[in-house]
Specification:
Elements lengths: L4 H17 L15 H6 L1 H4 L4 E13 L2 E7 L4 E7 H4 L1 H10 L5 E10 L5 E12 L15 H6 L1 H7 L1 H23 L3 E2 L5 E2 L11 E4 L4 E5 L4 H10 L3 E9 L11 E10 L3 H20 L3 E4 L2 E4 L5 E4 H9 L8 H10 L10 H12 L9 E7 L15 E9 L2 E8 L4 H16 L10 H8 L5 E7 H8 L28 E8 L6 H19 L1 H4 L1 E5 L5 E6 L2 E7 L2 H13 L3 E6 H5 L3 H9 L8 E9 H8 L3 E2 L2
Parallel strand pairs: 3-5, 6-10, 14-15, 19-22
Antiparallel strand pairs: 1-2, 1-4, 2-3, 4-5, 7-9, 8-9, 10-11, 11-18, 12-13, 15-16, 16-17, 17-18, 19-24, 20-21, 22-25, 23-24
């Protein structure tokens, strides 16, 4: 039988203890590395005559008598090393065999050469363990099957998926490009507090925390806006911050609760200057990050070059809904929501109704070019300056592409009397039950009363990158907030879908009775482990009141494997994923005497045991991921 995860861990801990007894350090603090692996490969011909030292994580090992091949991988590249017993000596060679495992970090010193198959390789004259891994890595073939596990253990997802590793390299370039652009344009990067006595700058429900030393509650900021605009009062003309935002709202493919946002504020800039600047900035960032201004997402190609159209929000709203926001009463908005299946709370008022309807409208907008939606109803934005000559519209712009809002910009409201009245209106909405309405911020009003220059402001968050990268936003954050992994009871919770898959080794030349015997033994052994949790049955009743038992609670599928080695690898990986596993070997079919099975198996190494079948059971997404390469049994 293959080892359980805990057995593997205990065995590796024993290896560490043995090293300590020998006076060896399993976790030394220094290395004699001379080159990265990429440098060694790129400068192969120049380095061949030199003795160099490379480091990395062992990703594979294979022994052939008195020689060993392994691949080690640093943060740059993977390179093969060769260890010969006659070169490193019996003691070191046996140490490599007995102590090192895939997943360990090592240092290898030697000279480069090219094998007969053309692979650039380091012939090792000495090596050193740099860090012992206690848990086994998932296999290269299976990787990590469960999407939830990938997000929880992102370090493994990145290790095994080059595309995921590249995604976060691109994201770093993305935010750095914003920083570089703004710094070149004369903006000053500033750092505002994350803990705020009053959360402001956006319509969102905040997280609350308690400050022990001050003995008062604070909110995690939901925006960067209000403290940065106080800096305009202080005399700075161009300021920005690139920092973390926290909003206690729902999860969706485009929403997170803990994410990165960038906001800038620009004194003496007007609304039109902002739109021109915004366009130049996005075009710079997209080109720097993705190498092109033509981006394809889920088959939809959008060209970010040229000049982007500026479309009136109210005119577009009327075109798609027939509602003229300049004159339509709230009743018309509620009637539209009711007739189009748009749900809303009883306390919701005009601004929220407009926004709910527009979220449906924007998905139908053209997707081949980004557009600016400008001059929006005042109910949507309590912090934007009114459009000159209008009491109902404000200078707010949304950038729309791929059916999503990908940034907002404003002509900033700097009239403290107008701002006070809008905060008061928001406070009434909160009293009515709208948790996302903005709070009254007296300190911000006071700052404005000292005088705030006319200004333009802008904000963009992680959503822009996730849309451009074609990934749900959770996948573009290294460690997104996740639900508790602990088991749940049945109160108000649907049981997670589980499945059992039986795989039969068709390469073993089984007769029909042996094949059936294998499947029967595996399912019986599995049922014995799970008991009523697996075997519980419901009933259906016919018209004449006769009972028919339904299938067992969880489905069982039958698939085909080609070799015993495939089943062994599957068994090891399934146990690593925490699945239930049942195994059936050649010895088990040749005798009913358990003592003989134990005796015969005890005399073999695991790789010598012939697997006839394996059953794996657990969360459907994990089992499906592990067994997707195996075809259904015909």
């Amino acid at each position: 039988m293959s080892e359980r995860l805990e057995d593997i861990r205990n065995r590796r801990i024993e290896k560490v203890k043995k090293m300590e007894e020998l006076g060896l350090d399993a976790y030394p603090s220094s290395t004699a590395r001379t080159h990265t692996n990429a440098e060694a490969l790129d400068n192969f011909s120049l380095l061949q005559e030199q003795t160099i030292t490379l480091v990395g994580r062992v990703r594979s090992m294979r022994g052939m008598g008195k020689i060993l091949f392994a691949h080690i991988e640093d943060g740059n590249a993977r390179v093969q090393i060769l260890v010969k017993q006659e070169i490193v000596g019996d003691e070191q060679f046996n140490f490599f065999l007995d102590t090192l495992d895939v997943g360990d970090f090592i240092e290898a010193t030697g000279k480069l050469f090219e094998t007969k198959t053309g692979e650039k390789t380091l012939e090792t004259i000495s090596f050193k363990l740099l860090a012992k891994s206690l848990l086994p890595l998932p296999t290269e073939h299976f990787g990590i099957a469960d999407e939830e596990t990938k997000l929880r253990k992102r370090y493994l997802d990145i290790l095994f998926e080059p595309a995921v590793k590249d995604l976060f390299v691109k994201k770093a370039k993305f935010w750095q490009a914003f920083r570089d652009f703004l710094l070149k344009e004369g903006f000053l990067e500033m750092y505002m507090p994350i803990l705020e006595p009053v959360p402001g700058g956006a319509e969102a429900e905040p997280f609350i925390t308690h400050h022990n030393a001050l003995d008062r509650d604070f909110y995690l900021r939901i925006s960067l806006e209000l403290p940065l605009k106080k800096m305009l009062v202080a005399g700075y003309e161009k300021v920005f911050e690139l920092g973390r935002i926290f909003r206690n709202e729902g999860i969706s493919p485009t929403h997170l609760q803990d994410y990165t946002q960038m906001e800038f504020y620009w004194a003496y800039a007007d609304f039109n200057m902002l739109l021109d600047f915004w366009q130049r900035m996005y075009q710079y960032v997209i080109q720097q990050t993705f190498g092109s201004l033509v981006i394809e997402v889920d088959g939809q190609v959008t060209d970010w070059s040229g000049t982007w159209e500026r479309v009136s929000y109210t005119e577009l709203f009327k075109k798609f809904t027939g509602i003229d926001l300049e004159i339509a009463p709230d009743e018309d908005l509620r009637a539209y929501c009711d007739s189009h299946g748009i749900t809303y709370e009883s306390f919701v008022q005009r601004g929220r109704l407009i926004d709910l309807i527009f979220k449906k409208v924007r998905t139908g907008l053209p997707k081949d070019k980004p557009i600016f939606l400008i001059n929006q109803p005042i109910e949507l934005e309590p912090l934007a300056k009114k459009v000159p000559g209008s009491q109902k519209l404000v200078q707010r712009a949304q950038l729309i592409a791929y059916g999503s809002e990908l940034g907002k910009g404003f002509g900033e409201l700097n009239d403290p009397i107008d701002q006070r009245s809008r905060f008061e209106a928001q406070a009434k909405l909160r009293e009515a039950g709208d948790k996302e309405a903005q709070m009254f911020d007296a300190e911000y009003i006071e700052a404005m009363e000292y005088g705030m220059p006319p200004a333009a402001g802008f904000g963009v968050a992680d959503r822009l990158f996730s849309v451009l990268a074609g990934r749900p936003i959770r996948e573009t954050v290294v460690f997104p907030p996740m639900r508790d992994e602990s088991p749940k009871d049945n109160v108000g919770k649907a049981k997670e879908t589980k499945i059992a898959v039986v795989l039969v080794n068709e390469g073993a030349g089984l007769e029909n009775w042996q094949r059936l015997n294998t499947v029967a033994h595996l399912t019986a052994a599995f049922g014995a482990r799970e008991g009523k949790a697996l075997l519980m049955q419901d009933e259906i009743t016919t018209e004449d009141s006769q009972k028919i038992k339904l299938n067992i609670q969880h489905a069982i599928m039958l698939k085909t494997a080609k070799t015993s080695a495939e089943l062994l690898e599957l068994s090891v990986q399934a146990k690593h994923e925490g699945l239930e596993v049942a195994e059936f070997t050649r010895e088990m079919i040749e005798t009913t005497d358990d003592k003989k099975v134990i005796e015969w198996t005890h005399g073999k190494k695991l790789s010598e045991v012939e697997y006839l079948g394996v059953l794996v059971f657990g969360k459907k997404s994990v089992v499906d991921g592990l067994t997707k390469s195996f075809s259904l049994h015909e």
